[in-house]
Amino acid sequence: DHVRTLGGTEQKGLLGEGWHWLFDPLWKVHVDVVSQRDAWLTHDQLDMIVKSGVLKDRAVLMDLKDHQRGLVWIEGRFTHMLGPGLYAYWNGVRDVRVEVIDAHQVRFEHSDLKVIAKSGMAKQLLDICTVDRDRVGVLFIDGRYIDTLPPGLYAFWKGAADARVVELDMRETTIDVSGQEIMTADKVSLRMNALVTYRIADARKAVSSTDDVRQALYRETQLALRAIVGVRDLDVFLSDKDVVAQEIEQAVRRRASE
Question: Structure pTM?
Fold first, then answer.
């Protein structure tokens, strides 16, 4: 069940299971006992042990570079994710498979993403986000527009680039512009309310043109109310309310399309 790692200032070799007699008159021999039941071999001198070559046929060795990540599957089940570094997994005791991923691709895509995303170690290495139903996510990487993402689960490598997903609701929505104090051309003060119904047609444009679509439409409706109602006398306004509503809609529609 165990393999004994023999070393002192210099790593010497591996001892298999059983009794071993070691000649050590100077008391410099140190033996670390590690269990092969744990497929992952961890040791503070793993680099020296690997360099000695004793693990060549005994373990799966992984030396992940800065741009590489590892997905570890044990007995066909995903267990954890690896960042850059040196790793060793025992052969023979359990079926170990390590999948190496190139993190140059900022967005991480995998058929088992839902399973992988639940791992605690994955959350240390990945920025994970979910675009909800009836929404889209506008993806920017390093400030550049990349794609518009449909509902679903997405992951991006931390540190590889600045990835940002702006989520937008694509359903029909209303804005209540209430309590607007407006003076008519004949100096009569009115308190007006307006209800704007809208739906986003171009998510990328909506995100790129303003920092807040809803607030921008609210502001444009306020301006349209003041501009269109403020040039009419009260009597004209009361007799032409439908016409006024149409003019306001056309003004807001024109600005919204911009």
Answer: 0.76
184-209 residue pLDDT tens:
999 999 999 999 999 999 999 999 98
- The C-alpha angle with vertex 205 and arms to 202 and 210, in degrees rounded to 5, equals 130
pLDDT in tens, 50-89: 888 888 888 889 899 999 999 999 999 999 999 999 999 9
Pairing of strands 68-74, 77-82: antiparallel
Exposure of 100 in the CB half-sphere (CA atoms within 13 A): 14
CB 99 within 8 A of CB 135: no
Whole-angstrom distance, CA of residue 161 vs CA of residue 157: 8
**How many C-beta neighbours within 10 Å does residue 11 have?**
19
CA 199 to chain centre: 26
CA distance 249 to 228: 11
Does residue 127 come out as left (phi exceeding 0), alpha (psi in the -120 to 50 range) or beta?
A: beta
Q: Give CA–CA dist 166/207, Å, rounded.
A: 8
- Rounded to an integer, what distance in angstroms lies between the CA atom of residue 111 and that of residue 170? 27
